[in-house]
């Protein structure tokens, strides 16, 4: 199995406020065989989108900090519906609110193999 084949056929929502990071992430996800949904860079837009389009994606990559707003409400919504997601952050684990420390996290710059493995169905 090649790098990232765990995502083949998946639909991954990208919520990232840095345009260049979002573009790179979208490219990696597409190379892994998944369809990219987004990217969306603003908290309000992302929360509205997930609530109105829950059948359009089956996984998500969430930047913790979206232009100064934390993405935790989006994470809560996804978790309540069993949608696999991973937080991304340019900071260490201590940057996450302790209530969210148990969720998967990849630090930027992230290792694509770790990101793909975390988003794959059946990942722990």
From TrEMBL:
One of its GO terms (biological process) is phosphorelay signal transduction system. The keyword Phosphoprotein applies. Residues 11-123 form the Response regulatory domain. It comes from the Bacteria. The modification 4-aspartylphosphate is found at residue 63. Coiled coil: none annotated. Signal peptide: none annotated. Keywords: Phosphoprotein. This is Response regulator. It comes from Paraburkholderia sprentiae WSM5005.
């Amino acid at each position: 199995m090649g790098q990232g084949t765990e995502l083949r056929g998946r639909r991954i929502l990208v919520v990232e406020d840095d345009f260049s990071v979002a573009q790179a992430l979208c490219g990696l996800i597409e190379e892994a065989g998944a369809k990219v949904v987004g990217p969306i860079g603003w908290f309000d837009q992302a929360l509205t989108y997930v609530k109105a389009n829950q059948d359009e994606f089956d996984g998500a990559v969430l930047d913790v900090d979206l232009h100064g707003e934390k993405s935790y409400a989006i994470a809560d919504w996804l978790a309540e519906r069993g949608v696999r997601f991973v937080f991304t952050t340019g900071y260490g684990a201590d940057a996450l609110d302790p209530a969210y420390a148990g969720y998967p996290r990849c630090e930027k710059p992230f290792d694509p193999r770790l990101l793909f493995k975390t988003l794959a169905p059946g990942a722990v």
